[in-house]
Amino acid sequence: MIITRKELIKICDRFLSDEVSKEELIHFATSVMFDDEDKYECEDDIVEEILSQWDNVHTQHKINKRSIEVLRDHLLKI
Length: 78
What we know:
By secondary structure, this protein is mainly α. It has one domain. It has helices spanning 5-16, 22-33, 45-55, 65-77; strands spanning 2-3, 41-42. It has a two-stranded parallel ribbon. Helix 1 packs antiparallel against helix 4 and helix 2 crosses helix 3. It is globular and about 35 Å long. The mean pLDDT is 96.
């Protein structure tokens, strides 16, 4: 499965509408980043960087509605 920018926008939308929790975002990012079976692949460096930040224990405290909203808007403009 290729994780695209479009897919990340959908995930952001689900987070913003409380369908996905912060913990689920982190779990998803970790699953993609540490996929030993090559089930997941990132569309580009931007997608990989976002997932890397979500997976990083030092930046996870920054995951909130406002930061995800800004990220979503940025992804829509790219």
